[in-house]
Amino acid sequence: MSLTLKTKIKPTALAIGLAALLPLSASAADADTEARIQQLEQQVRTLLEKLEAQNTALSQQLNQQQQQINEKVVPAKGAVIATTNGRSLSFKSVDDAYSFQVGGRLQADAAFYDADDNNFGDGTAIRRLFLDVRGTFAKDWNYRFQYDFARPGSSDSSARGIRDAWIQYTGFGAKRITVGSFKEPFGLEHLTSGLYTTFNERGVTDLFSPDRHLGVGLSSGGAHWSAAVGVFGERPEGDVASEGDEGWDLTGRFSYAPLAEPGNVVHLGVAGRYHKPEDSTNELSFSSRPESNITGVRLIDTGVVPGVDDFQALGLEAAGIFGPFSVQAEYVATRLNRGGALDDVDLSAWYAYASFFLTGESRAYKADEGIIDRTRVARPVGSGGIGAWEVALRYSNADLSDANIIGGELENLTLGLNWYVLDNLRFSANYIKVLDVDRPGSIYDGQDVDTLALRAQIDF
């Protein structure tokens, strides 16, 4: 038997029941939502704490890396920085107030002579072997010391040794005050380093060049000009005790370059020198080799000129650089003033030459010093290139005869070939033809000489 109970709920009662349950349902929903919100807030706080910890670690890592970079880029005070220009190594302080560089040069020569009557002496020699120390101290002071271990042409050890040995103050901007042993400001080729001259030896005007003497000089220069003047005594190797009182020089030079751009230069210059010999003999002499230093033969030579009270020399310079082509010329006139019944003596020398780079390079120029600078090789050997190749031709003339002085007149023609393997490595060959020697009474009068001069040089 089954019992079925059927209950009928009226709509009014149902409504009343649902209305009673609504507050309970809303209350439960609010509690659940609040819990979820609190949970989300906790998760957000946890994430923020993790992010802050990660940011702190990342910041510390970045700071450490920046410190390492700073230590490499900006060394600590008192550190020394080593730099190189591809040829030599230099050391300097962080603030550039101090620097130091050791350098040097080697020139090894060989010469072969073909002469009719006289023996000029084929042979080899170390032309120059320099130790060179230079640098800066206290920012405004420069210094340089050169020692040549192989100065040819003299067996006298006093003729070897000290070359540049000076201190220079640069605290007046472009003006420089130099004290010590340095080149007197006279002549374009004379002031240009022997490393950068086009031919193995300078032209015959160099027989009047004063070279280096102890003195004090003031120099300055700009983008198109240079000027220098100085007062000088004797060479640092001189023996004053055996010479008597020293002679002295007053020498000055001015150059102007209306064009002074890389590969486009016009240079004009003038120089003057006054020399007063103060020793008891007042004797001077001038002579010249055949533009080769291996031989000791002097094709022209005044011998000792007695009674010279003083002399003046005037030098004129001109040069042009037009891409791979260049020209250069100098003229020097010297007057020896002699006392009593002795006649004054006028001597002179000049040269002119042209050069051309077969590989397209140009000779370099420093306008603020008015000199030729280092040739930069466009395609060095070892870097896929053949180096720089230059050909040049020079005519030289020197006249050392006047009044009763018969020193002779010399004419030379020189053909040069230069191979610049690197900026600081060069091989050269010069063929020198003596066109004429006019020196009556000398064994070299009318001498015909052909010379092949070779050189290998490196500097650092």
Describe the protein in words.
- It is a single chain.
- Residues 1-9 and 152-158 have low confidence and may be disordered.
- The protein is an alpha+beta fold and 460 residues long.
- It contains 3 helices and 22 strands.
- A hairpin with a 4-residue loop joins β17 and β18.
- The strands form 3 sheets. Strands 3-4-5-6-7-8-9-10-11-14-15-16-19-20-21-22 form a 16-stranded antiparallel β-barrel. It has a two-stranded antiparallel ribbon with strand order 12-13. Strands 17-18 form a two-stranded antiparallel ribbon.
- The protein has helices spanning 11-73, 188-191, 240-243; strands spanning 80-84, 89-93, 99-115, 123-137, 141-148, 161-172, 175-183, 212-221, 225-232, 248-261, 264-276, 287-288, 300-301, 308-322, 325-338, 345-357, 364-366, 371-373, 388-402, 405-422, 425-438, 449-459.
- Helix content is 15%, strand content 49%.
Main β-sheet: number of strands, strand sense, barrel status?
16 strands, antiparallel, barrel
Strand content: over 45%
Spatial gap, N to C terminus: 127 Å
Q: Helicity range of the residues?
A: 10-25%
Radius of gyration based on Cα positions = 41 Å
**Main structural class:** alpha+beta
Contiguous helical run count: 3
Instruction: Report the uncertain regions.
Output: 1-9, 152-158
Strand neighbour order, sheet with most strands? 3-4-5-6-7-8-9-10-11-14-15-16-19-20-21-22
Mean pLDDT: 88
Order of helices and strands: HEEEEEEEHEEHEEEEEEEEEEEEE
Total DSSP E strands:
22
Global shape: elongated
